[in-house]
Structures are given as C-alpha cells and as structure tokens.
Amino acid sequence: MSSFTKAKGFVSKSLKLSFRPDIQLTPDDVAAAREYIVKYWPKMERYHPKDDESLLGVPKPYLVPSYSAKIGFDYNELYYWDSYFMVQGMLDKEHQELVSGILENLMALFERFKVVPNASRTYLTGRSQPPFLTTFIFDVYQAYDPGEAWLKKSIAIAKKEYESVWMGVKKPNERMVYEGLSRYYDINYLHDLAEAESGWDMTPRFERKALNYLPVDLNALLFKYEKDFARAAKIFGETREAAKWEDAAEQRRIIMNKLMWDKNKGLYYDYNFVKQKRGSVSSLAGFFPMWAGMVDDKQAAALVKAVRRFENKGGLATTDALPLGQFVLGSMPTQWAYPNGWAPLQYIVIKALERYGYHADARRLAMKWLKTNLAWFNEHKVFLEKYNVVSPEKPPLKGVYPSQTGFGWTNAVFERLCQDYVDRPQ
Question: Has residue 333 been placed in a domain?
C-alpha cells in the first residue's frame, strides 16, 4: 500500500474521531499529521545574518511562527516566546544545530539591545515577551550537554536580562513596581503595548490597563529564573550564590501567595497594584506557578480542581466562560479568552500537572488537545494558531490580526504531546 493510500485511509477513519476521554490515540492515528509537521518546518526556517531594513540580523537560522503564500500578513522575524515553544517538539540530535542556534540568536539579541525583544524587528525592541530564557537554556543543557562553560556563559546572560529588564525600576525597563513583583511593559508606556509584551494580545485579564497589573504568569516565570539560577550555582559549586537565589525565589513565592492566591477559588489571579486588589478574570495564567514548582501540595490539589472550570470538549479555554459583556473591552477583540485554546497554555498546564504527579489528568488534557488539532487537520489539512475548544468543529474567535495557519507552536506542541502520550501509551 502506498503512503498516499495509507494517508487517505487514515483520514477517512479519523474523520470519525471520538472525543471520549477514555479512547486513546494510536501512532497510526497521528502519522499523517506528524508527517505534515515534519514537511512544514523547512517553510518556516529563515536565515538573516545581517540587518535588512527593519529586520534585525541574527547569527544562526531560526523559525518564524507560520508561513502562508496566500495572505499578505506574513512573518520573517524571530519571536521570543514562540521560539521556546517551537523547539519543544525537536529536542533531539537531528535538530541540535537549529535548536541551539535559536537560543544563541535570542542571547545575541540581548547582548546587542540589552533586551530580548518581542521579535527581531527594529520597531519591536521597545518591549519583550514572556521570559523563558533560563528554561530554554536548561532544555538545551539537558538535551545536548554542551558543558559547564557554556552553561555559565548562558546563565550570565540570563542574569543580566533578569536584572536589567524584568527587575528594572526606571525607563526603559520600569517593570518592578510593587513589593518586588514585576509587570509587563513597553517603552512607549501604553497599556495596549504592555499587553502585547504579555503575548496575550488581546485578553480580558488586564481590562485594557496592563501597566496597572502584576501578572501571575510573568512573576511565576521570574520565580523559575531564580530557581534556575540557584540550580546553576549548585552545578558550579557556588553554595552561597545558590542560597541567595533560593531566598529570592522564596520571597517571591510568599508575596505572590499573599497578593495573588485566592484560597476560596483555588486559583492564582493577576494583581491590580493601583487598586490593590486581585483581578476578576480566571485564566490559565493561574497555572504558571504550578508549572514553575512554587505551589505546595494543598495548592496543587486545589488547582487540579480548578482545571475543570476551563476544561471543555476540545481542551482548555484560555479563560473561564465569563459573561459576554466582560469581553467587549473597547473595540479590541480578545482572542486570548474563552472559547479559544492555545497550544503553549495547554502545554504549560499539562506539564504543571505532570510535575505534581497528576498524570491521569495530564493525559486526559493532552488527548483532548491532540484530538482537537487532529480533527481540524483531517478536515482542512492545516494546523491553526488557536482553536475553539468549546466547539472544536467551529473556527476560533478572531483577534486583532488575521487568524494564522501553519502553525509553529501548535505543530511543536502537537509533536511533543505525541512523543509523550501517544508514543508512550499508558
């Protein structure tokens, strides 16, 4: 039987995909989709070693979020947090040069501009994106063993990013603003552009006033930096340095629990430091502390219960189902909200559950998300930037830019979840 015939058989069979949580996917079910992903990566690879008008030069090849020949809106630039998620499906020897090179590009951008910019464009250097640099560094360190000298140099760059960008107290990095916690920011000091730094452009989380909020995801990521700095110091045999970073992480954990943890709802919330109260929007950002390892067992159990508020037929909605009126914030569409689900957030929650031993819950959510991606692929032959997890057969709600197909982090998370949950059955 030819591979084409196999693929046709796969599609006709899988159009009847069951969303029942007890029915697992098999390697055959996902074979055609994974083959599509492998063939799609070369379309997204770019190499721009020199500046070209607004496009900044970086030393190594990289991946753009998506590619389409059919629309005017297209990417040629390297994005910060997209890059982290796009490599999650390719942490293997075959992709070592590409993965390591993408990380090298991010660090080179920091060394040149004193910020890892939103993306490699001159006009996007006034803000960053959710900081995954230390996590990326340790992924590469564990996957490829580049040695302690490499780790020391890379962690030194991450420390500079942490201190100058995320813990900055004045322009161009006025982010640490309240009780040692930080906010998203943009050099133009505009709420909507600070919201763009969050990567959640746009979302109801910040009520169009992002500069007023201490985001729970950002501060959990900075807790992760502090723990990673402690981890690196232990590898280097620097006991006193490790203790300093452990203390910083513990202090952040205490303050975040005081300001952001809602014991009654069993979830973390963004904190409006101007009004000195928690935000009202329940979102998947509330699971970043669990992913980062900063919650105790009691909080973890509460967060597992809270998962159900976001869980739908096709996976996790970005926010819970708030009344429609709460989403009409000015004229800006809020695509980072119910009923849309996004690959990086599914991945964060699944990894959070795994970290605390909730393996059955992690597998259930992974299967839901894989089936949502797969059902759309079988019908339309593409992967999407985001999905409608409430009604997976319907398109997602649109945002401030055209909906994209392709799509880098969707493809990568699909592949990674296949590796973790389909290739390794229960």
Answer: yes
